[in-house]
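Example 3.2
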Amino acid sequence: MPAPPRPPAHPDAGRLALCLSGGGLRAALFHLGAVRRLAERGLLARLDLVSAVSGGAILAAFLADRLRPWPDAGAGLDTDLFDAVVADPFRALAASNLRRGLALRALLHGSLVEGMRALYGRRLSARGLDALPERPRFVFNATDLNFGTNWVFERDRVGSDRAGYASPQHPGGSARWTVARAVAASACFPPLFRPMRLRFAPERLRGVRRWTARYTELAARIDLTDGGLYDNLGLQPALSARHTVLLVSDGGAPFRRLATRGRAGELVRYAEILQGQVGVLRRAHLLAALRQGRRRGAYWGIGGASAGGDEALDGYSDALAAEVLAGIRTDLDGFSDAERAVLENHGYARCEAALRTSLPDLDGGEAPFRLPFPEWADELRVRHALRHSARRRLVGRRFPPPRPAPPFLMTDFLSDGT
C-alpha cells in the first residue's frame, strides 16, 4: 500500500522560539516570572513559536487564552496590563487546590485523564485548537506510546511524524480537539495517569515518514502520555525549525536520590529514572550546541548554577535554588503566597541573567530590572517560609487567591483606552 502524501512543512516564520518545560504548577509559576521579563523587554511580542510540555503547557494554554490580541512587536508589555490579564488570574489559579476538582471530574468522566481534560477546560481554556493564534505558533507536546515519538497538538494539525497528522478541523470531530485536551495529554504523568486514548481512521492521517507492517493497527488507536517522557524541555518543534533563537525555560526537578519503598514506589522510581535520563541528555545536547555556536539561544533552569555568572542581578543564590526551590512539589495542590512569589522572582531573575550572558546582542529594550515581589528577596525569609514546600499532603492545601481576578481579557482592557 503506498504511503499517503506528506503535508507541506511548516515554514520557518522567524527567529524566536520559547520552550516551556514540564514540572507541574511549580514549573508554570517559574515560567510565569520568565514570561514577565520577556514581556517587559518586548521579546514576547517577537515570538514565532511557543512549545510547551506538561506544567509549561498549563501556562502556555493560559497565555494563548488571555493574551488576545497577542502583543505587537516594538514595545514591551505594560506591567499593569500583564498583571491584570495574565499574572493575577494565574496566581489565583495556582492558589486553589486543583486536585479536589480533578478527583470530582474523574468520577464524572470515568478516568483521571478525562477528568483533567474537563478541569482544564473550565480553569484554563475552553477554546478549540483551531482558535489558537496564527502567530506565535503554539505547540503542545505529548508522547506517542505506540510509535515512540513526540506527538503535537497545534492550530492546524495533531499527530506525529511516524503516525501521521490529522486536521483539527475535520468534519464531525472538531469538538474533541480542544486546548484542554492537548494540555491533559501533555501532563498525564505515569503511572498515576493512564494514557489518553485517541481513535483514528488511519486513512485520515497524512505525512507518514516511517511505515511498519502494523501501521494500520497502531495508528487506529493512539495512546498518549506525558510529553516529558520524550522531551521534557519541549525542544523538538523548535529544533526542527531553522535559524531560530531558542529561549528555554526549565522548571523541571533535578534527579532525587532516595531509596524505593514497596512495589508502587518502584514503579514510580522506574519512570523517574527514565525521564531523568531523557532530561539530562536533552539538556546536555542543548547546552553543547549553544556553547559550540551550532545553535543560538539562552537556557535558564530552576536549580543548579545560574547562567548569569557574575552579573549583578538581585536574584537568589545557586545554593538556595538547588537546596530549596528545585525541591518544591510539582503537584496540583495549592501554592502559598510565598511559594508563588518566590518562584516568579526566580524565573524572572534567571531569565534576565541568561539573556544578558548568552544573548547580549539581542535587541530587547531597556526595561529596568525589578523583581515582581521585592519583599521576598531576603533568602533567610525564603528558607523559613518554604521549609515545608517539598512535602505533599494527602488532603492538600488551599490558599486564598492573592486578590480578585479581573474577569476580562486583554481586548477588554485595551478597549477602555488604557
